[in-house]
């Protein structure tokens, strides 16, 4: 009997692994083969005279003020930082936020203050949130809103309207090219941690990089396109397909492109190459690329803005147009990108968002049907058992095991995601946790096999039926059907091992 259970359980586990493997899509990212040639490790912009002619960071005392920016149907506040007693009309920069709420008192504080102390007037508006949500946002609409800030800054006394540019970081680097395309009002562009590819591709690339850095098992990586590539439950997320390239190909302003080599979320090599290629379409040769060693998404190390970045940014802005294409064009730390950020395969129809959620909810409702029927019968005073003695225990185990496997999988993914985003590794958590999830899945399969054999053996012996009542039949069918669905879901996300 034990041999039969062990062999059957092994076969079912392998079958589930096979089902998960072939249910698609797979994940096999293309290795990054193009390279970018860094000319020097010194990030200083242009010849030594460029830095000598520019006001250094810390030259001026900074004064702050808050203004109101009128938008279409709304208004936002913005903080202006100005260099006190700086002579003549000064260049200006409008900062465009990355993902999130984007308040001026929290975002770009160090960058804006450093530039202002070097003689550049900076403006950080609050992000407009009534048209921005996790499910819905428009980068074109956001660009039009931020252009209102550009207009206001250009009209500010002491600002040279012909020298006002925009600075976009992360998600903001999808917005800034829309602002700059065919727009002479934008004098220059600074792109920091630019994703370059559409958001869905960027998300898959970032998740892959984070998970690999954390050391997750290879089988778990196939979940990336199955989660990132699907239509999300409830619709929305149309912006996930936004393509910034047509706008980059219409930028004719000088462009400074900046990455930190400690930023695993961005395609640091591919991004620079793509922007350079796109600017060539616009016949724009005014570009500069800088890589800062160990810097993160915001060009910070240990949460502090890299001093060389603040220096180089100020020098580049104040030195325009001379610094627009000055050597060295590409400088700093040597970047490394393992895989290409590329289009993500879509799941098949049965694994799209709404159906996936409906399947999980339906499976959970089916599993809890038995306990609900038992509770109702007890409240009515019915003491008759719904199930045969030999069936009840494995049925409870398979139901509880299936739910436990699903919960453990979700918890494991959340913990690993948190570790990955914070660049932390822990083999006990990553490998041990995954082993625990798989053991829960295998134990559930064993309980299911025991249940099936007991039902079949009972029928062969003509013993008491597995379900003694109609309620028992519903409970048995619900538990078996719901648990099977949950196990298939676990298989889809790699819980069960494959032979390959």
From TrEMBL:
Name of the molecule in the record: Dienelactone hydrolase
Source organism superkingdom: Bacteria
UniProt GO MF annotations: carboxylic ester hydrolase activity
InterPro entries linked: AB_hydrolase_Est10, AB_hydrolase_fold, BAAT_C
Keywords: Hydrolase, Membrane, Transmembrane, Transmembrane helix
Record-annotated membrane-spanning stretches: 355-374, 395-415, 435-453, 474-495
Residues in BAAT/Acyl-CoA thioester hydrolase C-terminal domain copies: 149-300
Pfam families: BAAT_C
